[in-house]
Amino acid sequence: MNASKIMVKLLENEDVEYIFGVPGEQIAGFYKALSESKIKHILCRNEQTAAIAGDAYSRTSQKFGICISAAGPGALNLIMGVATAFKDSVPLLIITADVHSLIKWKNTFQDIDLIEIFKPITIKNYNPENGKTAILNLKEAIEIFKKEPRGPIHLNLAKDILADEDIDDVINKEINYSPNYDYSNMDLAIRKLKSSKKPLIILGEGVRRSNSLNDLKKLIKKYNIPTVHTYHGNGILNSEELLNFGIIGIRGSVAAVNAFKDSDMVLALGATLNDRTLNLDKEELDKMDEFMKRFDNKIIHVNIDKTVLKGKIQIHGDIKEFLSRIKNEDIFNNINDNWLSINLKNKDIPNKSKIYINDGYVLKPQKAIETILDAHKDSLIVNDAGSHTTWVLLFHNSSEKGRLINSGGLIPMGYGLPGAIGVSIANPEKEVITIMGDGDIQMNIQDLATISEHNLPITLFVLNNNQLGIIRQWEECFYNMEPYAVDLKNPDFIAISNAYGIEGEKVSTYDELVLAIKKAKSLKKPYLIEIVVSRENIPLPA
Q1: Close Cβ partners of 462 (under 8 Å, ≥ 6 residues apart)
Q2: Could you give the CA distance from residue 15 to residue 140 in angstroms, rounded to a whole number?
Q3: Within this chain, do residues 309 and 430 fall inside the same structural domain, yes or no?
Q4: Tens digits of per-residue pLDDT, 377-428?
């Protein structure tokens, strides 16, 4: 067997079910092997879609996603999706083909330095010189995903290496990979936990990857610890949980923001604690190191990615292992008796940004969002970028059955449609919707074809105000300028949807929207709902 067949076999052995990609000349050998395997290939209409779909598949399957492309242009089209996965620490395997090794670095057709291009947006890059090394590289990548799933890995394969057959002696070779974790600060962490009077726990996406949720719930409920979550930590605890005080950071709940400010110890688990989580304004961003000093002494930060660790007490390690080490310790016995009740009072404070007036004639975007979310509490909701995102974050209530999936570190326009593809394929039994703006859908509208081809039961909501609304607001509020280059002359979205074989309808009132949602739910197949909404200023970060 050649290298391509061996690699596909290795992926089969890891129970890989789906690969997202677009074929091309240099990757054809890999596709031949894939065509003879049980792995299902999802043909996307653009490599960016393949990468984003692989990203979203990974986020909601707890497996690593895979996207593949040909050399040159195909590989470059992956960049946006790979960068999105990198910024959110999503395990994604990227396999790119390359020109023949003999003509590499000679400015030949489609020859470009893919390793240097992908290096800043991946946690590891492989550029093997032969088939043997390629097999070993793939085995190591798989081991990293199993033991330290903290971001995308890139494997670049020249056309001739994919066909290399001199590999028999490495087929059964074992790869031993052990993360270099550091628990040397455990004693400091335990002392901090024991002395805390006003503790707070921040839940990030890493909690899901660590398989520690049951242990964590026991800890939280045993000591009645107020808990908040990052964008990606939504759904880890149900929003109805007494001890869940909501999302932290920009667009965060009043209770979550106040709890963070007033706490004397913050245990951050699987979160990055970036500027959005910490709700830094421009002045604080300019002096981030100085700002962080105010919080350094109260943060215990646990993460498998040491590059994101903040605070004086850093634990580079697995959350499950961390929880096992504090399990038998006498912690959280100095908590202020009023700490929980104070936060419960804050939980009752409404977010003023939720207040709006619906005049009954023009459907406001926040009313549309609220209506969509109320009807999909247990659904997987894929959100895109834009002004509507604010309303989604403000109105969404997380559920252990449902969840909001969105890019947090990069937030590219166009994430929603391909993201919904990946989520739906990973969760065929779940109801999946995506909420997009009229600018968002046109970034990757061609992959309505992928949704139609696989008859994915996704409801696509498109909020149409004929404008790039959040850019308009920035122009007006921060640059004192008239709207420029933001008005959109949109096509007939329903006609385009129909052309791809997807039914849909256009609505402009609340009653029409309610009926459209009811119809979409009954169909169990793809359906596009275009919602005509008014132009509306959104609340800016406080």
Answers
A1: 436, 437, 438, 440, 441, 493, 528, 529, 530, 531
A2: 16
A3: no
A4: 999 999 999 888 888 887 888 677 889 998 988 889 999 999 999 999 999 9
Which pairs with CB-CB distance under 8 Å and at least 24 residues apart come from 31-34?
Answer: 32/4, 33/2, 33/4, 33/5, 33/7, 33/8, 34/8
What is the distance between the alpha carbons of residues 11 and 139, in angstroms, rounded to a whole number? 9
pLDDT band at 346 (very low <50, low <70, confident <90, very high): confident
| Residue at 542 is within a domain | no
Same domain, 148 and 192: no
Six-digit token pair at 275? 């500027």
Q: Percent of the chain scored above 70 by pLDDT?
A: 92
For CA atoms 215, 221, 227, 230, give the dihedral sign.
positive
Element (H, E) at 505: strand 503-507
CATH number assigned to the domain comprising residue 399? 3.40.50.970
Q: How far is CA 167 from CA 6, 163, 190, in A?
A: 9, 10, 50
Please tell me the number of Cα atoms within 13 Å of 39 on its side-chain side: 28
Joined tokens for residue 55: 């990203």
Closest CA to 5 of 167, 158, 155, 126: 167
CA dist list (Å): 348 to 256, 340, 341, 376: 11, 13, 11, 23
Bridge-based pairing state of the strands 403-405 and 380-383: parallel
Q: Which residues contact 465 (CB under 8 A, 6 or more apart)?
A: 365, 437, 438, 532, 533, 534, 535, 536
Angle at 379 between CA 377 and CA 382, to 5 degrees: 110
Are 295 and 361 part of one and the same domain? Answer: no
**Is residue 115 a contact partner of residue 158, using CB atoms and an 8 Å limit?**
no
The interaxial angle of helices 186-195 and 319-326, nearest 10 deg, is 60
In DSSP notation, 341-366 reads HHHHHHHTSPPGGG-----SSS--HH
Q: How far is CA 309 from the centre of its chain?
A: 19
What's the pTM value of the predicted model, to 2 decimals?
Answer: 0.92
Q: How many structural domains comprise the chain?
A: 3
Q: What is the pLDDT of residue 539?
A: 56
Q: What distance in Å separates the CA atoms of residue 166 and residue 143, rounded to the nearest whole number?
A: 23
Pairing, β 432-437 against β 403-405 = unpaired
pLDDT tens by residue, 249-281:
777 788 888 899 899 999 999 998 876 666 555
Q: How far apart are CA 94 and CA 122, in angstroms?
A: 9
Q: Are 401 and 427 in contact (CB under 8 A)?
A: no
Phi, psi of 160 (to 5 degrees): -75, -30
What is the side-by-side order of every strand in the sheet holding 199-203?
244-247, 227-229, 199-203, 265-269, 299-303, 313-316
